Amino acid sequence: MAQHLQPTGSAYFIAKETEKPETHTLSVLVDNEPGVLARVIGLFSGRGYNIESLTVSETEHEKHLSRITIVTRGTPHVMEQIKNQLERIVPVHRVVDLSVRSHELGQERPLERELALVKVAGTGEARVEALRLADAFRASVIDANTEHFIFEITGKGSKLDQFIAIMKPLGLVEICRTGVAAMNRGPQGM
Amino acid sequence: MSNGQSERREMTGAEMVVQALKDNGVKHVFGYPGGAVLPIYDEIFQQDEVEHILVRHEQGAGHAAEGYARSTGRAGVMLVTSGPGATNAVTPLQDALMDSIPLVCLTGQVPTSLIGSDAFQECDTVGITRPCTKHNWLVKDVNELAATIHEAFHVATTGRPGPVVVDIPKDVQFAKGFYVPPQIAPRTSYQPKVQGDLEKVKAAVELMASAKKPIIYSGGGVINSGPEASHLLRELVDLTGFPITSTLMGLGAYPASGKNWLGMLGMHGTYEANMAMHDCDVMVCIGARFDDRITGRLNAFAPNSKKIHIDIDPSSINKNVHTDVPIIGDVGRVLEDLVRLWRASAKADKKALYPWWEQIAKWRARDSLAYKMNNDVIMPQYAIQRLYALTKDMDTYITTEVGQHQMWAAQHYHFDKPNRWMTSGGLGTMGYGLPAALGVQIAHPNALVVDIAGDASVQMTMQEMSAAVQYDAPIKIFILNNQYMGMVRQWQQLLHGNRLSHSYTEAMPDFVKLAEAYGGHGIRCEKPDELDDAIKEMISVRKPVLFDCRVATLANCFPMIPSGKAHNEMLLPDEATDEAVANAIDAKGRELV
């Protein structure tokens, strides 16, 4: 009976996913050459993988190496595919799944930090409250006049989310976030 | 005027292109000129080491280069202009990507100063071809041009082979710079792993030695690895006594005349191959990738087996099917170790396999490729069988288009050597076969090259008949003409209540007159008893031939694993009544196709 209810009849059999999706953070070391980011992003969109956050910058100027940090979500099977597919890209040197690596190192998760610029405009009580809260979150004021502040805040994504949510009723104007930068704890490199 | 060792000579970009082709051993280029590649064409004009084959459409250049590559084991080269030249190349590029064919495509581009300005015949070639190439480059500096072309050949032909694009703006073709010869200094980020992990190979040998119901499932990777890999595969089969089946792309790696051969597996594979796959206890997958046409329903795929998977591409491992012993490496290298270790450690207890072979013999006895012979109408299977009988002892290469005729060719034409079978497997490109045959014939001028075609596919790239005539390439286009897009119709019968929406070609050209119009030779055959003479005529004519073989219009391709079913749920020809066909796939499944 149960057998009968299974979807049959497609050349493209769509298996029921039994594994649970997980969030993983990947570090990808690439040659900094034209189109390399497009190759990485195109792979994700072309094969239907998620990107929750993506950060990229040249990290070793003399070798022209860039480090891309990608936060993605998928089942362990998909994660393995993402890593293998990324490694197939010619200018990709290394792919490290930081989340897997941190488990191997006996740690819960990799170190992850994000930076946000948060503009808040207002006067009176709201303005004072914004500044007080910013202090509590260790956000620093990097620009201000009598009507606004721009705060710079660094931390885990969840901390930034919380700060932004609190600023909303206090005159939040705009937000810019960098995306996640990450590495594993301990003396070893990636 | 050239010698390959020319050190840092100053030359124009266009000269560099031709020099780089020579230095990479290129003898033939398939292409079509246009504004943005004229400087390169001017250089081609002034030399005769590299011969240019003028096609009639850039898609034809790509498939011809694929056929050339597949039949020689060397890279195929195509040269096209910017804009439409490049976009027309996209289909063969994706085709080569999916079938792992080394293809180097050089494209012209508008001058660097005009890039991004929507200039005449401009397109974002590297952007468009990024997902359909293994790698691509836009060369903006003439001093990087030579090294880039050398790297392109390296990337295309090493690791898992594939297509590459080098996009060359017109001003770079005119600019002067220094040429560097090919050097073996591959970039550090590209290091394909060719040697398999010896511990894994040992584990594979142990698993194989313990098998009671083993099967070898080989694929195109064996052919890509080179003739030595095919040789080792044969040795492994002889040593182990294992039965062997192959994917569409792998036909010829193990000879079809070999006693352990089960025929092709998959959707239109033989009953014995698919049943043996389903019931096996150890599966040795060599250079194949568990494609959906092979596995059928994944959760019923060889359910009681341990799987060994040899592949050069790590992303093929565990992609569709979980593997117990993955071995990443070049098939040839891994087989070398596998054969050596098997000889050293495993005793070939072939007697232990007797019950398995007895079971296989029972499946074989079902004769799943049988069909009802007809004395008045040519059955398509019969046409292929006669073609095989009359050409098998010659130096023959076969290409195909895509559809029923392709499956019949795979079932009824038997290959004893690798690199003799050129077909579009992964992408399933109708129109592949005719230009591919042209490419094969250019590489093997004295061989018999036959494109087993369908009447619909062949009209997609028919214009390359003109190129075949121009280059005295006596390709034989053997058209199984049933006036339908047969495979489309077969699926409409299976899935869509026999409503044959637009799968019948009401206006068919007269292929005999068409052949003559191109300057080729036309043959029509409608009766089974005239077929042999007609095929003999086709073989003897030293001209491109369009052979209009009128076959039974409503024949369907069996056996078949109805989509979404398991290997042991095949529809066999003697069971494929209209009712069985209509009920093979349920309503829910129809939504998913």
Architecture overview:
The complex is a heterodimer of chains A (190) and B (593). Chain A is α+β, with helices and mostly antiparallel strands and 190 residues long. Chain A contains six helices and nine strands. In chain A, the strands form two sheets. In chain A, strands 5, 6, 7, 8 and 9 form a five-stranded antiparallel beta sheet that branches. The relative contact order of chain A is 0.17. With 593 residues, chain B is an alpha/beta fold. Chain B contains 24 helices and 20 strands. Chain B folds into three domains: 10-178, Rossmann fold (3-Layer(aba) Sandwich); 198-365, Rossmann fold (3-Layer(aba) Sandwich), CATH 3.40.50.1220; 380-550, 3-Layer(aba) Sandwich (Rossmann fold). Helices cover 38% and strands 16% of the residues of chain B. Chain B has a six-stranded parallel beta sheet, sandwiched between helices. A six-stranded parallel beta sheet of chain B has the order 11-10-9-12-13-14, with helices on both faces. A six-stranded parallel beta sheet of chain B has the order 16-15-17-18-20-19, sandwiched between helices. At the A-B interface, helix 2 and helix 3 of A face strand 6, helix 13 and helix 24 of B.
